[in-house]
Amino acid sequence: MPDVLQTVVPASMPRKETIVLNVTSPEFVTKVWRREVAELATCSVTPPVAALPDCLNEFLKAARGASRTPGQAEAVTVIDGQRSDSLETSQMFDPDLDADMDTYIQRIETKMAGRFWNTAYFGLPAVNAEFWDFAKAFADLVAQALGHRPGGRVDIDCFVGRYEWTHTGAHVDYADNFAFTVRPGKVMLTWPSSVSGVAGAKWPEYNTFRDQSTPLKNLPDRIAYFPYDTYHVAESPEEVSLNMNLAFWDDCRDTGKVVDRVRHALNSKGPKRAPIGINGATTLAVEDADNLNTLRRLVSQGDVERWMAESALRRETSSRLGVPRPVSGPVGLAAEVSLLPTAGLQWYVSESREWMMLGGNGHVAQMSFDRQLLDDLASLLDGGTVEVGGLASDATLGRVLQSLAKWGVVGPHAQAAGQ
Q: Is 279 left (phi over 0), alpha (psi -120 to 50) or beta?
């Protein structure tokens, strides 16, 4: 099926000419991206719906304290427009009670007995490898169409429920959103940023602006798109809808994280008693001198360089998902391995050339600088293969390949696998 985009306009507004575009064409960038809401026809890169139960089970285990999920992964439940207790898990998918998503939805509908409810799962790629692979593949598709990557983080959120309206009211995500629909019923009311007064409006206040909205019907055969500065509110009052939003955030906060780490290392408290002081030459106060020495040490010993390198490798090898591809269980090496088609592999060599960092699919490892290893990795990037059986038991490349296989960067060479 071709990748096309189609704008959507409400019946109450004068209809514009329908725009149908190929997602990889220049027209996508110039006419739709970050300019107006649209509907994108489904393409070959689709969410792994069959993996949803396993994915959502990870959120339940974390909520029960049975596992630890990354900070970006969070589940939020809203009942009758009010956010429920964060420890409440009865509205979450439970494999002991739910055979599949349909069973899950029917269980909650029966339990709620007509009340409105919805559960949002944030950060799916942080807990499930299949969703990580999907998010990376779609992010790469969008980047190829645009000719660049948006500067911020990429994430997938899942929304399930039957609810009157988004409890936060009309709001802006500051992320470009592509919404994939599994179960229809949800309509997204959207307004451009130029509409004054809609920000923060809840029902029934936002009804005043309904005629100015462009509704997006979330349907299984379309991908609903809205730009980063679009005000929006969702309604799904008649049916339990199930949607997944792939969001491209507007900016990157990694620089701020480095500043925070530097700030944490410094003594921010001044003296309780300050000197009287005299005119003329002076010296740094003890606290300032200590902080200056700390800054020199952070730079000279490579701390800041390491923080920046790790952040960049995690971000770029994950196509800006910013989280490592989830690992489950041991992964063995095939007799002959090569780089997997969707893998991200980069390395950074320190300015001192004493150490290097290797990044693969969002994972990062530091090691001593090794020229031969870099040559071997470059060969993999050029389409080369490695015969694992021919490596010495203590070879650095063999140990690195074990990690790369676990990270989902290398796998059985396609030709060898087909023999």
A: beta
Counted residue by residue, the chain has a size of 419
Q: Are 302 and 350 in contact (CB under 8 A)?
A: yes
3-state helix, strand, coil split of the chain in percent (to 5) is 30, 25, 45
Q: Which amino acid is at 217?
A: K
**Residue 35 DSSP symbol:** T
Instruction: State the DSSP string of 336-382.
Output: EEEE-TT--EEEEE-TTSSEEEEEETTEEEEEE--HHHHHHHHHHHT
Return the SS3 of 328. Answer: coil
What are the phi and psi torsion angles at 108 (to 5°)?
-70, -40
What order do you get walking across the sheet with 355-360 strand by strand? 345-349, 355-360, 363-368
Low-confidence ranges of the chain (pLDDT < 50): 1-20, 416-419
Instruction: With beta carbons less than 8 A apart as the criterion, state whether 359 and 381 touch.
Output: no
Residue 72 exposed, middle or buried by CB count within 10 Å (0-12, 13-18, 19+): middle
CB 38 within 8 A of CB 78: no
pLDDT for 15 equals: 39
pLDDT of residue 44: 85
- Cα–Cα dist 63/75, whole Å: 8
Q: Please compute, for residue 324, the number of CA atoms within 13 A of its CA located in the half-sphere on the CB side.
A: 19
Q: Do 117 and 78 form a contact (C-beta atoms < 8 A)?
A: yes
Hey, CA dihedral for 69, 70, 71, 72, is it positive or negative? negative
CA distances from 60 to 13, 65, 84, 94, 402 (A): 44, 9, 15, 7, 30
Query: Would you say 183 and 147 are in contact if contact means Cβ atoms under 8 Å apart?
Result: no
Residue with tokens 């005629």: 211
What stretch of H or E contains 248? strand 231-249
Q: Which amino acid is at 297?
A: R
State whether residue 282 is helix, strand or coil.
Answer: coil
Tell me the longest C-alpha to C-alpha distance in the chain: 85
The set of residues, in sequence order, having a beta carbon less than 8 Å from that of 6 and lying 6+ positions away, is 18, 19, 20, 38, 39, 40, 41, 222
How many CB atoms are closer than 10 A to CB 114? 6
Residue range 342-367, pLDDT digits in tens: 899 999 999 999 999 999 999 999 99
